[in-house]
């Protein structure tokens, strides 16, 4: 509205009187009126009475609110009230976001860079860092002589982290120190456990001793104090059976998260951290080659995938199974351990162990699952690299077209004797031209080089039971049925009182001894396994490895 405006009115006095005295009079309380006639020069003072003349007049209306104290007061109060209302509305919106109302569908603060499945393997040139790369078959080198060839200079960038437990089976830690962990001097290898110790010069660090007291309230944490009492009192050494009541597996879950923090604290800024367990066999040559092709400043979480929980907005998550081992890059560890800081330098986030304590409640079975979810909440997705990170033990490692030319980085559930034997053999089988592949490991046992073995189970997990219209009631009939199937490479007869036939197509494995056993407390069962030797030779000839095929991430390949 203009500060001053004019309006001309022509007409009878009653019209003007209606204008001034009607419903508009109250509205004019904030205006100053100057009424000018066209017949005189007089200026009428503000009035609510009509002029005597019917001559045309001019009304000059000037806003008077700048001088009106009550109006100014009302206006100020209204402006302040509106400002307060807007502020409260904005504050309420922020509170709603924090409480998880509808706007919280913006990924709850941890957007994850999703990695799509990639079923196309990579080929790349790699070289061994071992010197010499290998020794002749039948060598009689000692453990120390073999380890002299290990590229220990790479331990400045790659940190091995071995997890054990006070109640682990006797001999597990020994088998590590006489096989794939043998070449690490004290200080090279981090050994984490649930009680402190010293083993062959290696400091064994108790990860649970420094966890916040709030962890002690968990029922599954209670065995920690009991095993500590048994150890400190000498009762565990005098009566090892006393440890049988300690469920070390339940305690194990509390180590996964703190071992990452402790590894960074003790060996910061390594390119990669390799976490593995006492029944994990690590093929260091192919693993070191593989890590040399990766950028440590990219947040990487690598392993064999297992399904995890759903996150707050319904997305499926995955974690790396701890048994085959897993790898975290420097950037991944930094991102996981990151704590937000206020402008005044005060940490906003609680310490790492307290921040993720809620993930380790008594209903959570596994620490590797909790770690995977903590990484997911940090925006890091697992890269699923099974079967390079293999969940199979040596004698149950399958050989098929997908695996045959791909490297083998780890094995799980390895026995003491197998770990020592593979370690010695590995030093003869290594090549500078390619990393250790499944095809090379086949040479260790040569599955399919014999036609039949009694009291042997070549693993029906990768085969199928013959059912339906086909009736097979003898071992010979089982073998004949396998031969009738074009792709069948091996068979297994579950005999005596059971009479079941299993056949496996396009897959090979060695298996293990299986003595006759009772089934259902009533029936006896025996095992006989066989291979179609000529087909195995043909299959191998068709699958020559011209390149090493490094598998890429895919959740379609899981154990």
Automatic annotation (TrEMBL):
Query: Which parts of the chain span the membrane according to its record?
Result: 75-92
- Annotated compartments: Membrane
User: Could you tell me the keywords of this UniProt record?
Assistant: Glycosyltransferase, Membrane, Nucleotide-binding, Signal-anchor, Transferase, Transmembrane, Transmembrane helix
> Transmembrane among the record's keywords?
yes
Q: Does the keyword Glycoprotein apply?
A: no
Q: Which InterPro entries match?
A: C1GALT1/C1GALT1_chp1, Fringe-like_glycosylTrfase
Recorded metabolic or biological pathway in which this protein acts? Protein modification; protein glycosylation
Q: Which residues form the Fringe-like glycosyltransferase domain?
A: 260-336
> Which EC numbers does the record give?
2.4.1.122
Enzyme class, spelled out:
transferase
The protein's topology relative to the membrane is: Single-pass type II membrane protein
Main localization, broad class? membrane
Q: Which GO terms describe its cellular component?
A: membrane
Q: Which GO terms describe its molecular function?
A: glycoprotein-N-acetylgalactosamine 3-beta-galactosyltransferase activity; nucleotide binding
Checking Pfam families in the record gives: Fringe
What family is reported? Answer: Belongs to the glycosyltransferase 31 family. Beta3-Gal-T subfamily.
Spell out the PANTHER family in the cross-references. APPLE DOMAIN-CONTAINING PROTEIN, BETA1,3-GALACTOSYLTRANSFERASE
Put simply, this protein is called N-acetylgalactosaminide beta-1,3-galactosyltransferase
């Amino acid at each position: 509205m203009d500060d001053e405006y004019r309006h001309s009115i022509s007409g009878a006095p009653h019209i003007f009187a209606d204008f001034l005295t009607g419903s508009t009079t109250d509205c004019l309380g904030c205006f100053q009126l100057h009424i000018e006639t066209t017949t005189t020069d007089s200026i009428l003072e503000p009035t609510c009475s009509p002029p005597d003349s019917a001559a045309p007049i001019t009304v000059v209306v000037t806003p008077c609110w700048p001088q009106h104290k009550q109006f100014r007061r009302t206006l100020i109060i209204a402006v302040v009230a509106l400002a307060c209302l807007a502020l409260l509305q904005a504050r309420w919106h922020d509170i709603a976001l924090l409480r998880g109302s509808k706007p919280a569908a913006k990924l709850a603060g941890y957007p994850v860079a999703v990695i799509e499945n990639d079923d196309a393997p990579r080929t790349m040139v790699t070289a061994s860092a071992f010197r010499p790369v290998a020794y002749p078959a039948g060598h009689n080198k000692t453990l120390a002589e073999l380890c002299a060839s290990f590229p220990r200079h790479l331990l400045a960038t790659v940190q091995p982290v071995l997890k054990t437990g006070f109640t682990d089976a006797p001999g597990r830690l020994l088998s590590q120190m006489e096989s794939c962990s043998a070449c690490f001097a004290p200080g090279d290898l981090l050994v984490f456990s649930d009680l402190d110790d010293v083993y062959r010069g290696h400091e064994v660090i108790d990860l649970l001793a420094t966890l916040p007291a709030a962890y002690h309230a968990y029922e599954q944490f209670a065995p920690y104090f009991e095993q500590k009492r048994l150890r400190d009192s000498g009762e565990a050494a005098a009566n090892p059976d006393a440890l049988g009541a300690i469920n070390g597996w339940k305690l194990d879950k509390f180590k996964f998260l703190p071992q990452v923090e402790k590894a960074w604290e003790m060996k910061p800024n390594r390119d990669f951290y390799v976490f593995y367990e006492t029944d994990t066999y690590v093929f260091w040559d192919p693993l070191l080659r593989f890590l040399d092709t990766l950028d440590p400043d990219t947040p990487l979480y690598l392993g064999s995938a297992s399904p995890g929980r759903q996150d707050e907005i319904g997305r499926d998550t995955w974690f790396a199974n701890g048994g085959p081992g897993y790898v975290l890059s420097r950037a991944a560890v930094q991102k996981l351990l990151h704590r937000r800081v206020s402008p005044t330098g005060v940490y906003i986030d609680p310490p790492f162990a307290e921040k993720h304590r809620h993930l380790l409640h008594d209903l959570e079975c596994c620490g590797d699952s909790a770690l995977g979810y903590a990484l997911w909440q940090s925006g890091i997705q697992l890269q699923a690299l099974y079967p390079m990170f293999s969940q199979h033990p040596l004698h149950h490692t399958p050989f098929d077209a997908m695996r045959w030319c791909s490297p083998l980085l780890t094995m799980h559930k390895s026995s003491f004797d197998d770990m020592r034997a593979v370690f010695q053999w590995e030093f003869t089988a290594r090549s500078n031209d390619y990393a250790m592949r499944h095809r090379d490991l086949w040479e260790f046992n040569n599955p399919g080089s014999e036609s039949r073995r009694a009291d042997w189970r070549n693993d029906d997990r990768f085969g199928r039971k013959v059912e339906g219209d086909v009736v097979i009631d003898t071992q010979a009939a089982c073998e004949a049925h396998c031969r009738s199937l074009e792709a069948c490479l091996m068979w297994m007869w579950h005999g005596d009182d059971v009479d079941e036939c299993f056949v496996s197509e396009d897959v090979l494995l060695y298996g293990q001894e299986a003595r006759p056993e009772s089934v259902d407390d009533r029936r006896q069962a025996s095992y006989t396994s066989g291979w179609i030797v000529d087909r195995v030779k043909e299959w191998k000839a068709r699958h020559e490895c011209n390149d090493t095929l490094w598998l890429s991430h895919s959740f379609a390949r899981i154990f």
